[in-house]
Amino acid sequence: MPSEYFNVPLRHVAIGNQDEFRQPGAVKAALAEFFSTLIFVFAGEGSGMAYNKLTGDAPNSPSGLVAAAIAHGLGLFVAVAISANISGGHVNPAVTFGLFLGGNISLFRGILYIIAQLLGSVVACLLLWFSTGGLETSAFALGAHVSVWNAFVFEIVMTFGLVYTVYATAVDPKKGEIGIIAPIAIGFIVGANILAGGAFTGASMNPAVSFGPALVSFTWTHHWGVLGWASGWWWSCWYCL
Amino acid sequence: MPSEYFNVPLRHVAIGNQDEFRQPGAVKAALAEFFSTLIFVFAGEGSGMAYNKLTGDAPNSPSGLVAAAIAHGLGLFVAVAISANISGGHVNPAVTFGLFLGGNISLFRGILYIIAQLLGSVVACLLLWFSTGGLETSAFALGAHVSVWNAFVFEIVMTFGLVYTVYATAVDPKKGEIGIIAPIAIGFIVGANILAGGAFTGASMNPAVSFGPALVSFTWTHHWGVLGWASGWWWSCWYCL
Amino acid sequence: MPSEYFNVPLRHVAIGNQDEFRQPGAVKAALAEFFSTLIFVFAGEGSGMAYNKLTGDAPNSPSGLVAAAIAHGLGLFVAVAISANISGGHVNPAVTFGLFLGGNISLFRGILYIIAQLLGSVVACLLLWFSTGGLETSAFALGAHVSVWNAFVFEIVMTFGLVYTVYATAVDPKKGEIGIIAPIAIGFIVGANILAGGAFTGASMNPAVSFGPALVSFTWTHHWGVLGWASGWWWSCWYCL
Amino acid sequence: MPSEYFNVPLRHVAIGNQDEFRQPGAVKAALAEFFSTLIFVFAGEGSGMAYNKLTGDAPNSPSGLVAAAIAHGLGLFVAVAISANISGGHVNPAVTFGLFLGGNISLFRGILYIIAQLLGSVVACLLLWFSTGGLETSAFALGAHVSVWNAFVFEIVMTFGLVYTVYATAVDPKKGEIGIIAPIAIGFIVGANILAGGAFTGASMNPAVSFGPALVSFTWTHHWGVLGWASGWWWSCWYCL
């Protein structure tokens, strides 16, 4: 089967089996999700900390958005590429949940993935905190004049675009050779969206990306809740019909 | 047939059949065009609004052009990639019209696509307007000392390059494996052209991209007309000879 | 044969036959070179003119180099991709000459290509001159404290890297699947080199790219000669041994 | 075997044979490593010297990081692509050592590669020194408030990500079609990491990249030692289990 390097085990919602925790495949897949999320968050969150260091915590700027977009876009592309063969390359609880709803991953394996993703993000932020000499892992925040509802809709549209891209290029069994460039597409839609949403909501599109910096800097404003829940994943299921 | 993930149904101009509106394939393809254009315009137009927000509506700058080029280049690449298997990945009335002239899409299906593209752009701008807390979806404008005729020629050359790229990498039956990277090429020629034309004409190359912001901000200067009509598509047919 | 979308007609130096001028394949290939060079130079040279317009002819800056690198890198990638199937995607007299020395193109066809490339660059600059309202198509210039010999070596190293990339990814019969991403590699090595050489020599690596702006602005300093001759092509033949 | 353009000769640690030095394959592979590293370091280090020239040795900035990330990301992608078929595309002593530990290259061939890589970096810096009219090839340095231990951990995490990417996309025999885009992934993870680490440690991830500028500018601070040793390669072996 050409281009079939994404795991697509199921085609309908399934609970899975708690024995999966003991299967080597599930553990290796969770490890792959852990390392991929770690590598992605290290580059992405680290680029934000580098911006703060270089500019003395200046407000965001077009150059800063470009740096953030490139760091997250390239980092996510690589994170998806290096785990695609092992875990399917989710690197994002929103993607895992969307694929669960679409019947492409079982409940137990999905929970395992999400725990691994959250852990990977936390470890990446701890490593950043240490290796930058104790700089703050800045949590996501809303721009001026952006209400919680504005941000909620913004994140829904962006996450919808991301999960749609995952379905269309990686999961769809009719995807054909477009699957070869699927990791690039998945990374680059995040890069493109950051150039729009970065100035308004921080453009997380990924609860794990929000969770790590929030935990390590212990910043629990309402923003975290908004960005964590504003996942457009349930809208993306028109594709799997 | 390798790399055949772009729909190439016809090889000569055809009227099509009004029954196509009722076929599930045509409706699904129009939906794909709608969502792809929405995702593309949301990232592209949103990046311009982010620039205006971060700089306090400052004049454009090299950093701003880079941000616009990356947002549109990556966004269009993804938009083409996620609809290539379903609708052929046009995401642009100029492309649809060019493919109609080349006999690659019927008249009825083409009209359906163009309506979907325009709607996708309008909905993206409405979502941006709401989720940014009511910021203006700035319409395209000409640079200083750029006449309407200058802009007309500029847009013709850029749109010609775009439609040529679509023909050479996605439609040409002899394209071979270059088709695998066709969505990247289609997106990136727009990114490259924005770095040239963005300072002079706004570098639309896409009537849908011009239409959404113009409607939502209700700005109908002559620029819209120029950019809407300056489509080099009819020049691109040397390829299909 | 996998990935064989680059024409590789010969494997040793050949004069060719003047009848080739009358063959439809040679004429179509020359037309493809003309349009590809036009599209590439329009985006690349246009990005420099946009920088001058936006900054009021300010000296170059890191942002300006980034814009130039992206415009040339993406533009050349697309220009190679859209002509690879027809002409082999040279878009550069240095590449054509290097492939002639390596026996991959006949003398007559090579001359035809180079004429088409120079014409494409000139037409692109004329179109830019008109559509920007008469702005100067700025010719390449040396940075401060950079002598002609410095620039000569700089251009040799960069052009060597470019022609090497063409050989290794597109021409080498053992290239395998790397050929699928060859147009990306060819474009991106130019993008990377511009970030180094753009501040010192202008980073042409391409006599056609130097010739068009020099002719249209009628600027014939010694720089043109240096950059036109500093082609590392004859060094690149270790690959074809 | 699809996508098999990376040499993967062995699957366990091996000493190799000193006769390999006399084999044409080993010599050609070492030459490929030499030229690839030369091309990569020329673009990457040259972009840093261009930044210093354009800004008058200003402190680093977000624009400077973006330029460095693009130059190194694109340059390494191309350097890997053009040597993948011949030498496996290491371009990095850390990668060569990691592949030796994983049993994918013999000791003698690995030493040959590392010598070629160091030489390529030195020659690139000498060429840069000459062709820029004698500018300093600035060696890597630590950011303010970054201790040697901070930098050590930073480089370990980044190099781990790089070597992991090499294993997952290029070496893994189960990589499938992801191998087609492996050179892009390998280059782009370095680009992403530079946007994070460039402000703190210089983000070398590559002893050869550190060695050339240090030798040519004769700057031997403790930084060189830290960056040279902080290679996370030995951590990356979970993949080859």
From TrEMBL, chains A, B, C, D:
The keyword Phosphoprotein does not apply. It is a multi-pass membrane protein. PROSITE patterns: MIP (PS00221). Its main location: membrane. Keywords: Membrane, Repeat, Transmembrane, Transmembrane helix, Transport. InterPro entries: Aquaporin-like, Aquaporin_transptr, MIP, MIP_CS. It is found in: Membrane. The chain crosses the membrane at residues 25-44, 64-86, 107-130, 142-166, 178-200. GO terms for cellular component: membrane. PANTHER family: AQUAPORIN TIP1-1, AQUAPORIN-8. Belongs to the MIP/aquaporin (TC 1.A.8) family. TIP (TC 1.A.8.10) subfamily. Channel protein in tonoplast. These proteins may allow the diffusion of amino acids and/or peptides from the vacuolar compartment to the cytoplasm. This is Aquaporin TIP1-1.
